[in-house]
User: Fold carbonic anhydrase from Psychromicrobium lacuslunae.
Amino acid sequence: MNQLTPHDAWLKLHEGNERFVSGSSQHPNQDSAHRESLVEGQNPFAVIFGCSDSRLAAEIIFDLGLGDAFVVRTAGQVIDLAVLGSIEYSISVLGVPLIVILGHDNCGAVTATKDAVESGEMPKGYLRNLVERITPSVLASQRDGGQGVNDFMVEHIKQTAARLVETSRSVADAVERKEVAVVGLAYRLEEGRAELVSSLGQL
Assistant:
């Protein structure tokens, strides 16, 4: 089980991202000896639930290595039952102290939702499911004055973090016990920085 506090885990993640931004990544825990040490088990310090976008590789942008992060990804970081089960596993079995909701600017799933809201035409196939789940975030952002995809993306990160705590009793209880914190991060593709946009629990 992880001995880091939510605050310690957040600092470690933030410091890794700053190294990535500055071009001084250390690429830790990627050698053969560390790989072999993980055969019998893992002890990640964060679970990162992020968008599937190919430009958003969590281990790279936070300068992490093998065993550091438990990563869950869907397009537009949309929550479903498998995501909830994966996150609950990370905190209840692995003892992860930090849950990260990771979105990014120019998100294709959020753009598709924006287009659907503005045109009134829903996409076909399972893409419709993604759009339906992101639509409340777009509408909430518009109500508060948001006008573009990146405004909608930030609101979606906040809404996703809040929904996770509201939906999962395991997560809510861990946050209440101050064992786990949930942070929302907005990643900027051009500069590589992950900006804190929401925080639930004691950080």
